[in-house]
Amino acid sequence: MGIFKINGVVGKQVPSAFKLIVEQLQDINLKAVKNVVVAYDPFDERSVASRKFLEFLNFKTVTRKFPDFAAQTQIKCDRSEPTISFDLITGKKVLFKAGNLTTLEMFRLYNQHITPHAPEEETQRETLTTKAMRKGGKK
After folding, report:
1. 42 close to 76: Cβ distance less than 8 angstroms
2. Is the separation of the CB atoms in 19 and 56 below 8 Å?
3. Per-residue confidence at 36, pLDDT binned at 50, 70, 90?
4. Which residues lie closer than 8 Å to 8 by C-beta, 6 or more apart?
5. What is the pTM of this model?
6. Interior angle at CA 72, CA 120 and CA 96, nearest 5
7. What count of Cα atoms within 13 Å lies in the side-chain half-sphere of residue 88?
8. What angle do CA 119, 121, 122 make, to 5 degrees?
9. Are residues 46 and 100 in contact, defined by beta-carbon separation less than 8 angstroms?
10. Domains, the chain, ranges and CATH?
11. How far apart are CA 72 and CA 28, in angstroms?
12. Alpha helices in the chain (DSSP H)
């Protein structure tokens, strides 16, 4: 038997990047966005994270939650840096230069800067009904 060197805390599990991205997807609100354009060069190594970002936005859970949302893709063959452009309903434009960002960082930046611009959801009040109201009044 040999000696095993262990660094860190034994038994502590580090969440995977996929789990962290799914947590960010649960907080995402796409109602603030009119249009999303993901532009990348498919032959550039830096475009992998932006393609994954687009893939996560097209998950069934996201498309069910926001049925009117649709992202556009621009394929460029000029070795340019991948970019993600958001047109907000407030008239502002947000541009992510995604060459050095990971997919998780893109979702964190989205939730930090764009999700607060989403309109507040109105909660419908439940009307309380009594037996007298259901019958049409007092007799």
Report:
1. no
2. no
3. very high
4. none
5. 0.73
6. 70
7. 16
8. 125
9. yes
10. 20-117 (3.40.30.10)
11. 18
12. 17-27, 48-57, 60-65, 103-113, 131-135
Whole-Å CA distances, 110 to 32, 86, 132: 11, 10, 51
Nearest alpha-carbon partner for 74 in 102, 105, 42, 27: 42
| Residue position matching structure tokens 């109602």 | 31
**pLDDT tens track for 79-137:** 899 999 999 988 999 999 999 999 999 999 999 999 888 888 765 555 556 666 666 65
Q: Is the dihedral of CA 90, 91, 92, 96 positive or negative?
A: positive
> What is the mean pLDDT of the segment spanning 58-71?
87
**Location of structure tokens 């990047």:** 17
Pairing label, strands 71-75, 83-88: unpaired
